[in-house]
Specification:
By secondary structure, this protein is an alpha/beta fold. The protein has a domain at about 1-185. It is built from 16 helices and 16 strands. The strands form two sheets. The protein has a 14-stranded mixed β-sheet. It has a two-stranded parallel sheet with strand order 5-7. Helix 12 (about 270-280) links the parallel strand 9 (about 255-260) and strand 10. Helix 3 packs antiparallel against helix 4 (about 65-75), helix 11 (about 240-245) packs parallel to helix 12 (about 270-280) and helix 14 (about 360-370) packs parallel to helix 16 (about 390-395). The chain is globular and about 60 Å long. It starts with 10 loop residues before the first helix and ends in a 23-residue tail after the last strand.
Length: about 450
C-alpha cells in the first residue's frame, strides 16, 4: 500500500466521487418491491457488480488515506453465496487487530469498526444446510443493517423466528426469497408471529416473506395496532392478504406500494380488494404477475377497473412479463385508466449467464412499445448499447397506427437511464443507431434510420 495522500478536496466530496465510481446499477431493491420475488432467488455476478467490486478493491489498495475513504464503500453492501465467504466475513467483523490499528476514531468497541459500515446484506445460499443459522448470526453482528435480501429454505426443525429475532433494530427492508432449489415446503406461521415481526421492527418499511399465515379460530386483533413505517407490502400468499385485512383501518398510514406476488383465481381476489379498500388510501403503485392468456389474466383487468373507479388513484402499475404478449389483457380494461401514468415492466430473469441475450432484448423492445402511459419503466439496469442494437424491433412495433401515442412517452430503466422517447407514433430512440445484428434471434436489417 502506498504512502498517505492528502487530498485537496473536502472529505465529503472525495467520498461522493468514490461512491459514483463504484456504483452498481444492477443492485437496486426496486425490482423486489414491485416485481417478482421468486425469479431472482439465484444470484449471478453481473458485469456491473464485478466492475464495482474491482473498483472498490483498487481504491482500498491505493494508499492509506484512500483505504480509509474506500473501506466503508467496500463493506456497505455485501453479497455472499457460500459458507466459506460467510465465515471469512465473520472473521473480519470480529477481528480486534484491524480496528486497533485502523486509526479511526469513533469505534465504540474493539471489533465494531467494520460491522457498523454494513448497511445491506444479500445472501444467496448455495448450501442450505446452515443457511438459517449463519444468516441469523451475521445479522446479530450488524447493528446498522438497513436491508436484508436472503434466499433460503427452512429445514426440518427450523423456525422463521430464529431470523426474525436476530434482525437489527434499524432494519428497513426485509426480502426473504424462496430458494428455487429447495424441496421442503415453507411452513405456516401464526398471525401472532407476523404481527410481532412488524411491531418489534418499528423502522421496517418494506417486507416480503414466503410463509403462509395461519389464522386462529378465535381471532383477536389488537384494536390499536399500527405500523406507521411500512410503505411496501409484497404479498406472496393470499393468506397474508387475508390476515392483514383484519387489522384496523389506520394500521398502515404510510402504505404506498402493494405487490400481489401470487396467482389469482378467475375472479378478483376479494381479500386483496378488501385490504386495498381498508389500508390503501394513499396507494400510488400496484404490482402483480400477468399470465400469457388474457382470459386467465382477466382478474387483473377487473382489479384495475375496480381501483380506478372508487379506489385511490393508482399512478403506477408494475407487471411481471414472462412474455411481451402478456400485455394483451390490458387492452380489455375499459377506457385504459387515465390515472395510470407509469407502467413498470418486469421481464423474466435472464436465461443464462446473468445477462440478456438477443431474444430477451426483443422481448424488452416489444414490451416497451405500448403507447398507453406517460412513462414505461424497465425494472432492471439496462445496457444502453445492447438495447440500442435492437432499436429496429421497437420501430416495427410502432408501425401500426393502433400503437400511435397521443402524448410523448418516456422509456427508462430502473435507475432512470433514458432508453427512448415516443411521440405521435414516431420513436426518437437514444443510444447507438440500429445496426445489423447477426444472431439466431432476428434476421439482419439494413438501412434502418433512427429519429434523433
Amino acid at each position: 500500500m502506498g504512502e498517505p495522500f492528502a487530498p485537496h478536496l473536502p472529505l465529503e466530496i472525495c467520498l461522493q466521487i468514490f461512491r459514483s465510481a463504484t456504483e452498481d446499477r444492477s443492485s437496486s431493491l426496486e425490482r423486489f418491491k414491485l416485481g417478482p420475488n421468486e425469479g431472482y432467488s439465484h444470484w449471478e455476478e453481473t458485469k456491473e457488480y464485478k466492475d464495482s467490486l474491482a473498483t472498490k478493491l483498487a481504491l482500498v489498495k491505493t494508499c492509506r488515506d484512500w483505504n480509509r475513504f474506500a473501506t466503508p464503500l467496500l463493506y456497505e453492501h455485501i453479497t455472499l453465496s457460500t459458507v466459506q465467504q460467510c465465515e471469512l466475513l465473520l472473521q473480519n467483523l470480529t477481528c480486534k487487530t484491524y480496528s486497533q490499528t485502523s486509526g479511526i476514531a469513533g469505534a465504540s468497541s474493539d471489533y465494531d469498526y467494520l460491522s457498523r459500515f454494513v448497511s445491506r446484506l444479500d445472501l444467496y445460499w448455495s448450501d442450505q444446510e446452515r443457511a438459517l443459522e449463519l444468516t441469523a448470526r451475521l445479522c446479530s453482528f450488524l447493528p446498522e443493517l438497513h436491508a436484508l435480501v436472503v434466499s433460503l429454505v427452512l429445514r426440518n426443525g427450523d423456525e422463521p423466528s430464529t431470523l426474525f429475532n436476530a434482525l437489527p433494530p434499524h432494519v428497513h427492508h426485509l426480502f426473504w426469497l424462496r430458494n428455487g432449489s429447495g424441496s421442503i415446503r415453507d411452513p405456516e406461521i401464526p398471525l401472532s408471529s407476523f404481527l410481532s415481526l412488524l411491531s418489534d421492527n418499528p423502522e421496517l418499511g418494506s417486507i416480503s416473506i414466503p410463509f403462509e399465515i395461519k389464522l386462529p379460530r378465535d381471532i383477536q386483533v389488537p384494536p390499536n395496532f399500527r405500523c406507521p413505517s411500512v410503505q411496501t407490502f409484497v404479498f406472496r400468499h393470499a393468506t397474508q392478504v387475508a390476515a392483514m385485512s383484519l387489522l384496523p383501518k389506520n394500521a398502515f398510514p404510510s402504505l404506498h406500494f402493494v405487490n400481489a406476488n401470487y396467482s389469482f383465481s378467475e375472479t378478483p381476489s376479494s381479500p386483496l380488494l378488501e385490504f386495498l379498500s381498508t389500508h390503501a388510501t394513499k396507494l400510488s403503485a400496484l404490482g402483480f404477475n400477468a399470465g400469457g392468456d388474457h382470459r386467465t389474466s382477466s382478474p387483473y383487468g377487473q382489479l384495475l377497473r375496480h381501483l380506478t373507479g372508487d379506489g385511490p388513484p393508482i399512478a403506477e402499475v408494475h407487471v411481471q412479463l414472462p412474455n411481451p404478449t402478456d400485455f394483451v389483457w390490458f387492452q380489455y380494461v375499459p377506457g385504459r385508466p387515465a390515472c395510470v401514468t407509469t407502467i413498470g415492466v418486469h421481464l423474466a430473469p435472464p436465461l443464462r449467464g446473468g445477462s440478456r441475450d438477443c431474444r430477451e432484448a426483443i422481448n424488452m423492445h416489444m414490451a416497451v412499445a405500448l403507447p398507453w402511459t406517460k412513462t414505461i419503466r424497465v425494472m432492471e439496469a439496462v445496457d444502453l448499447d445492447f438495447y440500442g442494437c435492437h432499436n429496429c424491433i421497437t420501430q416495427d412495433q410502432l408501425a401500426s397506427p393502433a400503437r400511435w401515442a397521443r402524448n410523448p412517452i418516456h422509456v427508462e430503466d430502473i435507475n432512470g437511464l433514458a432508453l427512448a422517447d415516443f411521440s405521435s407514433g414516431l420513436s426518437a430512440l437514444r443510444g447507438v443507431s440500429c445496426r445489423p445484428v447477426t444472431c439466431s434471434c432476428i434476421p439482419p436489417r439494413k438501412d434502418v434510420s433512427i429519429v434523433r
